[in-house]
Amino acid sequence: MITLGDVVRRQLHVPTIPAVRDVAALLAEGSDDIVAVLFYGSNLRTGATEGVLDFYVLTAGPPERGMWPTVSYREFDLHGETLRAKIATMRLATFAKAAAARTLDTTIWTRFVQPSALVWVRDPDTARQVAEAIADAAKSAARFAAALGPESGTADEYWRALFRQTYAAELRVERKGREGQILGFDPVRYAELLPLAWTADGIAFRDEAGMLKPDLAPARHRALLQAWARRRRAGKPLNIARLVRAAFTFEGAARYGIWKVERHTGVAVPLTPWREKHPILAAPGVLWRVWRARAQTSEKTV
User: Fold this and answer.
1) Whole-prediction pTM
2) DSSP-derived 3-state class of residue 65
3) Rounded to an integer, what distance in angstroms lies between the CA atom of residue 191 and that of residue 229?
4) C-alpha–C-alpha distance, residues 45 and 110, integer Å
5) Interatomic CA distance for residues 156 and 229, integer angstroms
6) 150-178, pLDDT tens digit by residue?
7) Mapping DSSP to helix (H, G, I), strand (E, B) and coil, where does residue 56 land?
8) Distance (Å, rounded) from C-alpha 298 to C-alpha 259?
9) Alpha-carbon 279 to chain mean position
10) pLDDT tens across 249-275, in order?
């Protein structure tokens, strides 16, 4: 009989394109503390290298004190193209704790209940620890889906209810229906995952032709709703604090910001040494340059 662990291991070892594996190897060689590299996001689903490749770099040691993860941006000239990577770095111990919902954070288990690939790992024991953490993320998400979703419904309806709640709690600006896009990439996976995660978490349920009904005791249901209320209250302050921290600690912020500006506006902005060293102070000047360039373009077309 297939288990949650089987599904997690299958997903973590899904084949990825050489460019992704090469970038992961370059990230891993930067420090002896790095124990694993996870790849996730839309590029994992599409197999494309366009845009930014999203990685989580996990390191050794006890859980961090204070805010996490640390975010950076790097560019690599590989395979005849420029590959862009956004890298979140945190301790594996912290990652595992957050995935198991033993913190008020919702971002880790929400993100990693979605597909991810283990594209570099130090040793088999670390691979096992990462797989256990990803399984815990699935159990955390499924547990809250049982409490926040309908009294009974399809797996899709439970996941949609969960993602809508987490988007609202995390201060994320998502287009309406974004949860449908995520689920639509692999609906069979999510339909399979929910009952397996409930089983692994000790939640009994009925399945009548695809209509699921979790059997949550009233006390546990209340406890889950109370736990979610605490996370909802903490979600926006946590995300604001992370944004403020990232404004001062985001390595490669200027390069990333200028690339985003050019990609979304078509306006080329030179990366000067001053802009690279002072991305926050440079931002108003960059915005002024974009506004002026677009205004001039509009005048020419009149």
Assistant:
1) 0.83
2) coil
3) 26
4) 17
5) 23
6) 999 999 999 999 999 998 887 654 556 67
7) strand
8) 22
9) 24
10) 566 555 555 555 565 456 565 655 655
